[in-house]
Each structure stands twice: as structure tokens, then as C-alpha cells.
Amino acid sequence: LAGNTAEYLSPAEPAKTHPAGGLYVANVLGHTLSGLADIGQASGDQQAAVVSANQAELDGPVSVYVDAADDVVYVANVRSNSIAAYRLSYPESDDTPSKLGQYPIRNNQAPLWTIRGDQSADDITDLSGPAWLWLETKADATTLKTRKLLYVSNTVPGSGRTGPIGNGIAVFDITNRPSGPNSAPIGVIKSQAFRTPIAFVVDPVNKLLYVANRDHAVYGDNLGGKIMVFQFPNELLDLSNNPDNTPVRQFWGQGETGGP
After folding, report:
1. 181 CB contacts (<8 Å, ≥6 apart)?
2. Deepest in the core among 131, 162, 166, 180, taking most CB within 10 A?
3. What residues pair up with 137 in beta bridges, in sequence order?
């Protein structure tokens, strides 16, 4: 997808879209969240939805994760060092629901909750340049209730109350709404091999975690980067128990190392 500044940075004249609102876009420069039509259905008389303005607390949003089951979208804000949750549907009246994709432009919606790290002496969030989100939903083995874990990659090395932070993947239990902005993760996936982990993909069948790293030491600022593969024994959260996970394979532009 590509867009000019009028469409994404400052959407003064938004494209007309189908009201389904099935595609959500984080606009890092415009500090907005767009709800667009499903791909292939960009027609109709409804404007694209944009969550912005002061109540939205969007500041450098770089990624989103949609939880369709609970009608929530999660957003990572790299500039404000925060993650936030927004409801996908708000009732216009008791009997006329409205979806995010049907909102007028520049809607000013406050988040349901926000976790924000300020790297002060009291900061326990482990957030430092959050860049990627992944939600794991599963049944708790003890209570049999649904448990939700939000995984957040952090790209900027820093320091918090617990010591060095960033350069890892923090895990937050969001089964219940976080108690406040300064909420601690239940674990952090760490590795000495990490070099600015900007994104990751989970293969739950083969129990593999793929992490894309922006490693400037490989090819310089423009082309640096490695993809690292980590094996977890039972569930992804198990990796947070190891203070230094070792990748089983690594890939980069001109080869591969660490695997068969």
C-alpha cells in the first residue's frame, strides 16, 4: 500500500471507502489510525475512519493488531513509548451500533487503556521503542478461562527500574484491563543475539519464533538486518524464562548460519 501525504500524513481529503472498515493502518508521521475498507471493496460513500486528536493519545503509531473476537485494536506508539487499546465499535444510540470504519474523519476516541514507559526510576513497563504486536489467546490450563497475552517488540535499548530494557520482546497479560499506565510485563524474551528486533512472526505448529532485526553492523544503515529463528519447547512464553535465548538459525542478505 502507498499513499501521499494527503491520504496518510494529513488526511484532509480522505478516500471514499466501503463502510466495512476491515483494514487498519497506523500512520507514524500523521499520528493517526485509519480504518479502511476491505481490500477489493474500496468503493462506496463512506469516508475512511481516522482516530486522532488529543484524546486518542496517538504519537508515532507504527503497528496495529486487531482482536476481532473482542472488537479491540491494539496500537504500538514508538514516539510516546506506549501501547494502547481501542474499541472497534461504539454505539451511536441504544439500537444503532457504529463500526470504526463508519466513523467520520478525525474521530477523537480515547483508548480503553494505555501502558506507557517513561524510563524513569519508577518505570516497570519494559517498554522502549515498541514496534510490533502479536496477541496470543488461549485457555488457561488451571481455570479453563480465556487468557490473552500481548507480545511487544522493543527496539531502543534503555534503562528502567529493573535494569536494562529494550532490545527484546515484552509479554503483557491483558486478560483483564491493565491496572494503570505503569504496568509490568509478566516476562521478557531476551537474547544477546538481538540487534534492534523490529518485527516477529510466530509459527505455533512448529514452535518457532522468527525475529527480524535491524542490525546496522551487517550492511550499514540502509541494508542492515538479520532474521533469527528461535525454538520454544511448549509455548512462546517459555522463552521469557531464559535470560539469553540462542537462535537455532540466522538469515541475512548473503547467507545463513547456525542451522543444518
Report:
1. 82, 114, 115, 116, 125
2. 166
3. 148
